[in-house]
Amino acid sequence: MRRLALIAYCLAVSVPTVAMAQSAAKPAAPAATLDPATLKAAREVVAQMQGDRTALLNAMAAPMVGMMQQIGVKQQDQAQALVQEVVLPTLTAHFDELLDIQARGFAAALGKDDLQVIAAFYATPTGKRLVAAQPQLAQAQLVGTQQWMQSVTPEMQGKLTKAIQAHGWGSAGPAKPR
């Protein structure tokens, strides 16, 4: 079970797309209730956002090798072989399913007209450069978020300690009535 969770985590981190961050407040509508034209426009946007699928999946190879090592395949050459022989072919075979899931999320959140405008943007040279820059941007955001969390953690820990004390919550549980 730990392996499945780790694989899911690595996929979520490795596939750079906004579609994976759908709002929990507005779940994606079932495909049957989505307008087919809107769903088609959403599929185009998602495909453009992903860029070249082979390049995207190949970019995931190194993180996947690391994941294999974390789940117990310690020899790098063995981990690389598993990624090349099993992981990447499996992801490639199911890639359209991922695009369909993401397209349904986009179609549920945005209208056909907006999706067509977004698709037009991604077809421009600037849109294509944005897609190409996504892995670098995702890495920069991850590093930036980690640095930010490290910088606010001491302050937050101090405030949490004071709040816990103010409430009378210690390691023994909630304060007893006086």
Characterization of the model:
The radius of gyration is 22 Å and the shape is extended. It has helices at 2-14, 36-50, 53-59, 61-70, 76-93, 95-109, 112-123, 125-167. The chain starts with a helix and ends in an 11-residue tail after the last helix. Helix content is 75%, strand content 0%. It is mainly alpha-helical and 178 residues long. Helix 2 crosses helix 6, helix 2 packs parallel to helix 7 (112-123) and helix 4 crosses helix 5 (76-93). 18% of the residues are buried.
Q: How many beta-strand runs?
A: 0
Main beta sheet? none
Q: What is the count of DSSP helices, taking H or I runs of 4+ residues?
A: 8
Distance between the termini: 46 Å
Task: Give start-end ranges of low-pLDDT stretches.
Answer: 1-27
Quick summary:
By secondary structure, the protein is an all-alpha fold. 75% of the residues lie in helices and 0% in strands. The protein is extended.
Question: How is this fold's topology laid out?
Answer:
Elements: H1 2-14, H2 36-50, H3 53-59, H4 61-70, H5 76-93, H6 95-109, H7 112-123, H8 125-167
List keywords for this structure.
178 residues, mainly alpha, single chain, 0% strand
